[in-house]
Amino acid sequence: MYRIGICDDEKGTCGELERMLQEYGRKKGMELEIDVWYSGESLCSFLRTGGGLDLLFLDIELVSTDGIQVGHFIREELEDMETMIVYISSQSSYAMNLFRIQPLDFLIKPISREMTEDIMERSLRMYERKNQTFSYSIKGYYFNVPFRKILYFYSQNKKVSMVLKEEEVQFYGKLKEISKSVPHNFMMIHQSFLINLDYVSECSYELVKMANGSLLNISQPYRRKVREQIMQYKWEKIR
Fold this sequence. Notes:
By secondary structure, this protein is an alpha/beta fold. The protein is built from 6 helices and 15 strands. The strands form 4 sheets. A 5-stranded parallel β-sheet has the order 2-1-3-4-5. Strand 13 (about 200-205) and strand 14 (about 205-210) form a beta hairpin.
């Protein structure tokens, strides 16, 4: 079941988008669960009680709690970096203000069938990638963890530490070998740090700040490449 949310105070936009999504689901033989909200407050109430979404179409110009506020609520208060957000608007001037929210895309109304299908194709590819798992062993026991739950890896004294949202796991391994098997949203920023770009909240020339508040050093040989790749990655997600 692929869970999709639509939040827009224009009922006509919601109805048309829902219709196009249902048509896409029938064409692909997919089961889609689509929910609609007409205000940011009602959407936040749903999410606050534990409701989850895989993909959210979110209007920026909601009347009271606007789409940018809702986006910050999802990313910062709920600490949810997994829900893919597609912003919709009648104007294009917001794009760079959405950097920290990391949207999947930014659509200008009116929304076409081609736009909707392109979003669905890309979101499904990302959904499949995020549900890939990383395998490791500790004392002969093997474990799997979804890549989407990993903030970053770091190495020290022949051990690798894997930092998740709520815990840190250590095992023997080599960071360079791990870097060869991770999805493209992971990158080396230092010979001792391999990070998940989905969890970068801020970036300077020398440091990245992760979603859990950790400040990680970007070593000199990696700085130019890291800056270019992070900016390209963010741009790809909002263009």
